[in-house]
Amino acid sequence: MASKSFRVTFSLDESDVAYFRRLYQTAKKNAPLDHPERVVNQVRDTVSTVRERAKLPKFVAETISTLETLIQMLEDEDYALPRTVASRVVAALAYFADAEDLIPDHLPALGFLDDAIMVKFVEQELRDELSAYRKFRKFREGAEQRPWTRIARERLPRRLEEYRKRLRSEIQARKQNA
Fold it and tell me: I need a labelling partner for 83 at 20 to 30 A (CA). Which of 2, 72, 90, 153 fits?
């Protein structure tokens, strides 16, 4: 008998969202913001361990991909993530780095469910920032036709800074209109 896929969906009501917001706030409060590299390294180790598994459930693979984007955004010197946003990212990563969180990670298939929910929560909270960062990466990849030339190397930092400022302005405008 061929296996069929099926979709599992659920909605979080206000009390569920409040619960995850409290978990996020606790992770933010407990995150070692003075040493974010420790959290990043823990998450990298976890991501590496998870990626070594033969087959990952799709929701886990998507969560891992988002975590990798969060790490890249945090460490990208060209993007220069504002400190307030960086602390929110470190908090999200700190929750994921805790193997004994709400559902311990060693439980097969279920261990990453709470992490996936938290990452979706963080994606929602940081949607404008993640969108801007993805645009920034795409812009940087195509910003110079001949990046090996001296002119391109000199021009690129200025172009990236201008584009980053434009993206920051767009984020601020969305926040003010929300």
Answer: 153
